[in-house]
Design brief:
The complex is a heterodimer of chains A (273) and B (253).
Chain A: H1 3-8, E1 15-18, H2 28-36, E2 42-46, H3 50-57, E3 61-66, H4 78-85, E4 90-93, H5 96-107, E5 112-115, H6 123-126, E6 131-134, E7 142-147, E8 151-161, E9 167-168, H7 177-182, E10 184-194, H8 197-200, E11 209-211, E12 218-221, H9 239-247, H10 250-257, H11 262-272
Parallel strand pairs in A: 1-2, 1-8, 2-3, 3-4, 8-10, 10-12
Antiparallel strand pairs in A: 5-7, 6-7, 8-9, 9-11
Helix pairs in contact in A: 3-4
Chain B: H1 20-29, E1 39-42, H2 45-56, E2 70-72, E3 78-81, H3 84-93, E4 96-101, E5 104-105, E6 111-112, E7 115-116, E8 124-125, H4 132-138, E9 141-145, E10 179-181, E11 184-187, E12 196-200, H5 206-211, E13 224-225, H6 231-241, H7 247-250
Parallel strand pairs in B: 1-4, 4-9, 9-10, 12-13
Antiparallel strand pairs in B: 2-3, 5-6, 7-8, 10-11, 11-12
Helix pairs in contact in B: 1-2, 2-6
Classes of the chains: A alpha/beta (273), B alpha/beta (253).
Chain lengths: 273, 253
């Protein structure tokens, strides 16, 4: 399906998980399609990068669940910062590991998982709904009961996929994209290239097959679809363009790069370099 | 590559003056002395040089990453795979000593990298809590502050990300071995686990540290000096680990 078709299945008010990590292998073509749509009032669950920055700048986020938002080579995401500093949306701020266990709980249909993180920190103060759980065994240690991060939909981007939804990462880190798909009622996977199933393991080992088709709802072929974040080994982060994104006032950036479709985006980016 | 540092300061012709950045490297490296076969996770340029120096010298069994998903030897040889999900398992397994940054740190070692001001509507949004809560409850966590000031060393942090000693009651794996700044080394070896001056970098006075610290620091009667690097360590820092002198970008002088 196309990115616009995938986004047409999303509704305002949904809880939406976005894969990748910081400014790494983010499903940016799908985020751009989301920005072209009217979908808003979202609860976004993300190890945040420019996906969060753009959706925040465009006013699409009602609530964000995250452990951080960063552009990696630019530590602080400027549009996310600005949105937070004007109190633009609600925030559920949890630790990186709590976030991961929340996805694991959702993927395993558990209400929570115990995690030794958060206790003693202000994560407990800013999330008054968080509860603790005590080990029933001899140690009697107390843990945070991290609630499941169940998602209405997940958006992720990988290097290759077949038409059935078997998705493959070829870089050094899978991040948590399989968990996002398993935690979601529907998952839309964009990829650099759609290939025949047999092609997937011709040159790569089977453990690169991160996403299984039963957890994937739709596949979108989106070459350069993680731009301007990194998508190793297909391409690295477009640092010059990321800098441009970070230093250009949002209305100007959106008008220049996000007013048209993905083809228009690619042309506009091409004219920059 | 840095233009500012000339290769002529080689140790073979007599040790040239040790810079403040180099004392900081030594102070950071010492965090991993005798650590054994654990992962060293340095955040920041000087802690990275320090961890690699320790790996080259007195902590040869340390594991180090390339900053992404690979475990690498001193020459860059890949020896293992450590994607984020396995990294988080390694944290909770405890076989790791991380040195994090701190936008704020208080007398009991509570650390903040999330935001400044009221969390609900911060005056300055920073990174977020990241992995500070899981780090501090699971493996030794030290801190690195390149510019020691009252803005960083505060009476009370605005958002507790890394857990300090006064809030860690019952946390069986909580430990903050040291805080290193451009002025000195600090620890919590006091009866109430409040911060203590452990050593001053050469050229720094107790008064200077007190002036730059926003809370009453415990200062022992006899204050040690951060040790001198050996000639071999200086050679490693200057010629092998950091020939581009990235360390001077974090701490001048």
């Amino acid at each position: 399906m196309s990115a616009d078709e995938a986004v047409s299945r999303l509704r305002s008010g949904m809880t939406l998980g976005i894969g990748g990590w910081g400014s790494r292998r983010k499903p940016m073509a799908l985020v751009r399609a989301l920005l072209r749509s009217e979908v808003t009032d979202l609860t976004v669950v993300s190890y945040g990068g420019p996906d969060v920055g753009m959706l925040a700048a465009a006013g699409r986020i009602r609530k964000l669940v995250t452990a951080f938002v960063t552009l990696d080579s630019i530590p602080l995401e400027p549009h996310y910062r600005a949105a937070r500093e004007r109190g633009a949306f609600e925030l559920t701020e949890v630790d990186e590991a709590m976030f991961m266990w929340g996805l694991h709980a959702a993927a395993n249909r558990l209400p929570f998982l115990p995690v030794r993180a958060g206790l003693g920190s202000d994560v407990m103060r800013v999330n008054p709904g968080l509860r603790t759980v005590t080990s029933p065994y001899e140690d009697q240690e107390t843990f945070v009961a991290m609630p499941a991060l169940r998602l209405d939909a997940a958006l992720v981007h990988v290097n290759r996929a077949d038409r059935l939804g078997n998705g493959q990462y070829l870089g050094p880190d899978p991040y948590f994209d399989d968990l996002f798909c398993e935690a979601a009622d529907a998952a839309y996977v964009s990829c650099e290239q759609v290939v025949d199933t047999a092609e997937l393991t011709k040159a790569a080992a089977p453990q690169t097959l991160l996403l299984k088709r039963h957890t994937v709802t739709g596949v979108i072929e989106a070459p350069n679809g993680a731009h301007f974040t990194s998508c190793a080994p297909d391409y690295g982060r477009d640092e010059a363009f990321q800098k441009r994104y970070a230093t250009t006032p949002w209305p100007e950036f959106a008008a220049r790069f996000l007013a048209g479709d993905e083809q228009a985006y690619r042309s506009a980016v091409g004219e920059e370099s | 590559m840095s233009e500012g540092w000339s290769g002529s300061a080689s140790v073979s012709g007599g040790v040239s003056e040790v810079t403040r950045a180099e004392y900081c490297v030594i102070a950071c490296a010492e965090a991993w002395r005798g650590a054994g076969e654990i992962l060293a996770s340095p955040m920041g340029l000087i802690p990275s040089v320090g961890a690699r120096l320790a790996r080259h010298t007195f902590a040869p069994d340390l594991l180090l990453t390339d900053g992404e998903a690979l475990l690498v030897g001193p020459d860059g040889t890949v020896e293992g795979w450590l994607p984020y999900r396995q990294h988080l398992a390694l944290v909770t397994g405890g076989r790791r000593h991380v040195m994090m940054g701190a936008s704020q740190i208080d007398r009991f070692g509570n650390q903040n990298i999330s935001c400044i001001g009221d969390w609900a509507k911060p005056t300055r949004q920073l990174l977020g809590v990241r992995g500070a809560p899981v780090n501090t409850l699971n493996n030794p966590t030290s801190y690195w502050v390149p510019r020691h000031s009252r803005r960083v060393f505060v009476e009370r942090v605005d958002m507790v990300c890394g857990v300090g000693y006064d809030r860690a009651a019952g946390a069986r794996h909580h430990r903050i071995p040291r805080v290193v700044s451009d002025l000195g080394v600090f620890d919590f070896a006091t009866p109430d686990r409040s911060m203590r001056l452990a050593s001053l970098h050469p050229g720094v006075s107790v008064e200077q540290v007190r002036e730059a610290t926003g809370f009453g620091l415990v200062v022992p009667d006899e204050v040690s000096r951060t040790r001198e690097p050996t000639a071999g360590e200086l050679r490693l820092i200057r010629e092998v680990i950091d020939p581009g002198n990235t360390r001077a970008r974090e701490v001048a002088g």
